[in-house]
Each structure stands twice: as C-alpha cells, then as structure tokens.
C-alpha cells in the first residue's frame, strides 16, 4: 500500500507491521511521525542496550565518520583493533572476528567448528544443536536452529546438525558420534519464549564436550553485553565455551556482531573467512562506546537489580490475573500467559503507546534498555495490568 506520505509497498512484505512510522528515539521512548510517544520494552529485540540514540554511541559514530569510514578489511583500522583487544581483555577468549549481524557471526562459528574438525578430528563436521534454538536466517544457521517453522522452508537445508533437548544431558550424549565436532546453544533460548539452560546443565555440557574433545559454542547474540547481569552469560556458570558469538547489544543500535574464540579453536587460514564491511571502523567505534558504558562501575549491578525488580513486578501481575511463571535472567524475561492471547496484548499495548513482544502465542518477552528506570517499568506494568484486567472482565462477561 502506498499513501501520500509513505510508499509502504516499496519494501518487500516480509512481516506484518503496524502503519506507524518511527522518526525519533531517546532512551526508552520512540516517537512516530504523528508525534505519538511509545515506551519501548522491545528495543529492537535487545539491540538498543543503552536505549534509543544514546549520546555516547551517537557521538562515537559522528566522530569516527568524520575521520574514516572504511579503509577496507584488507587493512587494519584503529577502532577494530581497540574493540577486539577490549573484548579479549574482558573475556575468556583470545581472538575476535567482527561481522555485520548475529547470523553472520553464527555462520562463522559453524565454519570455524568445521574447519577445526577437518584439521584436528579427522574431518568431523556434525554439530549438536537444540530443539527450540534460534541461530539466524542464513541457510546454515536456519539448519542449526530448532525452530519448527523453519523446517519446511528453503529446502534442502544444510546437512550436519542434530537436535538435542535443552537441559537434558543424556539427549546430548546419545547424539555424539565419530563425526561430531561441536555442541552449539543459546544459554537462554529467546525466540522460543525465553527458556534458560540451567547453570548446572551448562556445566555438565562443558564437562561432556571436554571428555569427548568437542568444541562448545555459546550463541550469546541476545544474552551477551550485560543483558543477564554479567557482561557475558557464561560468567554465571563458572565455565567458559571455546567459541562465543555476540550481536544485538554489542553495537547499541548499529549493525555489529562478533565471533570470539580461544587460541586452540582459532584455526581459520588466510582466505577462509572475510567480509566487505567486517570490522568497519564506524561500527567498531560504536562497539567501543557501548563497552565503555556497560563496563562502568556498578552498571552490571544495576542491570541485576533492575531485572529483579521487573521480575517481581511481573510475578505480581501474574498472581493478580492467574497467569503462569516468569522466566529468564536479568533484563531478558518472559511472562507465561497460559493462553494464546499474547498477540492481542501486544496489539492493545501498541495502541496504548507501549511496545511489547510476543515470541510465542502464550508468552510475552521483555527486553528493555539495560538502563531502563523504575518509573518506566512501572509505566509498562500499569499498561499491561490494565489490558489484562479488561481481558479478564471480557472473559467473565462472555
């Protein structure tokens, strides 16, 4: 559809979108072209970790854009070197490869694992992933994902992925064979409705992969960069994977992602991996600004405290309306609605000026800015509570 103001039909129609056109954002709020304000608890699916247009990121982008856009990835540039060193210095990894998207980072992780298998495990190439997992929309990452809706799409898929059950170590062990090279998972499955792997399961998985000489890959596209109260989710467990991917929050709103690996797992040779915009200095300048903010004293402590507040408020809503539990960690949470009413709640909240997400028909997902305030949480809870109150009254009348 084309209107006098906006040519909607010039974009491929790949998802249902409301007709509002957003023109400005600041912190936890967005404004559309009619000047309506929205409280955003989606934040680009956990992308805007510091909220919309944070000054630190905006200033870094503007400053770097005036100095150097890109010299091409055939040469070093200063922001990429600095960001790589900062990530290595704050993690258990030794080397970094920058990408433009989480899917590309996960694709790189798959390629790196297969390269490792060809060099060190007699050509082993199979990767054990998990039912309900989501790793991206390239053919390989869709194949690695355990999303049911992907199964009939774009056949034939990439071979070499087996699916275990989350939090079931026996289901992983029985899939290990001579061709297995790695195990890959999200510490918290986001798209399937925010289902966490337990810390104990992740420790068991680390022990199992070490016993069999397998690589362990953590997809921290959504959980990384402070989302769960630690800079990286694996820090909650006392163990570390061999490979980790980051995306979403690492750029604070710009297209930036990363593949990190230990020295043992880093086996790419010249020509194996690349990308025209990978390690772009403007994007890496944004990443440095994000890391500078998230790494400030007490920032992650505040994420934990705010996450506990949001969880408590959601539990109160659940108790008032007879809903299910709250799951997740930090500021990546889901509310179990126990009924397939999530899309309707999201639509009503949108009309009321609050942005929510329904990853499943019976669940709401909450991914606010990591610096969301108590007042903004209260505003969202009031809106949700009102919608649920009206929905309950309607059911009683019916």
TrEMBL record:
Q: Which SUPFAM superfamilies match?
A: PLP-dependent transferases (SSF53383)
Q: Give the UniProt subcellular location, in the record's own words.
A: Cytoplasm
**Binding-site list for pyridoxal 5'-phosphate:** 102-103, 134, 219-222, 276
Q: Which PROSITE patterns does this UniProt record tie to the protein?
A: AA_TRANSFER_CLASS_3
Q: Does the keyword Amino-acid biosynthesis apply?
A: yes
**Catalytic activity, as annotated:** N(2)-acetyl-L-ornithine + 2-oxoglutarate = N-acetyl-L-glutamate 5-semialdehyde + L-glutamate
> Where is it found, in Gene Ontology cellular component terms?
cytoplasm
Query: List-wise, which residues carry N6-(pyridoxal phosphate)lysine?
Result: 248
Additional free-text comment from the UniProt record: May also have succinyldiaminopimelate aminotransferase activity, thus carrying out the corresponding step in lysine biosynthesis.
State the family named in the UniProt similarity comment for this chain: Belongs to the class-III pyridoxal-phosphate-dependent aminotransferase family. ArgD subfamily.
Listed name of the protein: Acetylornithine aminotransferase
Lineage of the organism: Bacteria, Pseudomonadati, Pseudomonadota, Alphaproteobacteria, Hyphomicrobiales
Which gene name belongs to this protein? argD
């Amino acid at each position: 559809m084309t209107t006098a103001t906006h040519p909607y039909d010039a974009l491929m129609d790949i998802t249902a979108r409301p007709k509002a056109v957003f023109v400005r954002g600041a912190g936890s709020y967005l404004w559309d072209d009619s000047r309506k304000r929205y409280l955003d608890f989606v934040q680009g699916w956990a992308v805007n970790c510091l909220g919309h247009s944070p000054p630190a990121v905006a200033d870094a982008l503007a400053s770097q854009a005036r100095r150097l856009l890109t010299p091409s990835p055939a040469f070093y540039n200063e922001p990429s070197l600095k960001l790589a060193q900062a990530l290595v210095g704050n993690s258990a990894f030794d080397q970094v490869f920058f990408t433009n998207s989480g899917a590309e980072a996960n694709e790189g992780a798959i390629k790196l694992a297969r390269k490792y298998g060809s060099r060190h495990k007699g050509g082993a190439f199979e990767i054990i992933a998990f039912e309900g997992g989501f790793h991206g929309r390239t053919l390989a990452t869709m194949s690695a994902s355990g999303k049911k809706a992907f199964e009939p799409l774009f056949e034939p898929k990439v071979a070499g992925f087996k699916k275990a059950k989350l939090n079931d170590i026996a289901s992983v062990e029985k899939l290990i064979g001579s061709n297995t090279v790695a195990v890959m998972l999200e510490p918290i499955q986001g798209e399937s409705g925010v289902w966490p792997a337990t810390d104990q399961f992740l420790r068991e998985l680390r022990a199992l992969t070490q016993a069999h000489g397998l690589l362990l890959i953590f997809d921290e596209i959504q959980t990384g960069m402070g989302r769960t109260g630690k800079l990286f989710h694996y820090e909650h467990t006392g163990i570390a994977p061999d490979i980790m991917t980051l995306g979403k929050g690492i750029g604070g709103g710009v297209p930036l992602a990363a593949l990190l690996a230990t020295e043992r797992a880093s086996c790419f040779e010249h020509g194996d991996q690349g990308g025209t915009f990978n390690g772009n200095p403007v994007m890496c300048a944004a990443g440095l600004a994000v890391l500078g903010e998230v790494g400030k004293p007490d920032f992650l402590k505040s994420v934990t405290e705010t996450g506990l507040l949001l969880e408590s408020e959601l539990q109160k809503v659940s108790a008032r309306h007879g809903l299910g539990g709250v799951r997740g960690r930090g500021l990546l949470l889901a509310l179990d609605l126990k009924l397939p009413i999530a899309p309707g709640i999201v639509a009503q909240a949108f009309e009321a000026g609050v942005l929510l997400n329904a990853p499943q028909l019976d669940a709401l997902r909450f991914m606010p800015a990591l610096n969301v305030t108590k007042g903004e949480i209260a505003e969202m809870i009031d809106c949700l509570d009102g919608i649920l109150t009206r929905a309950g009254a309607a059911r009683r009348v019916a």
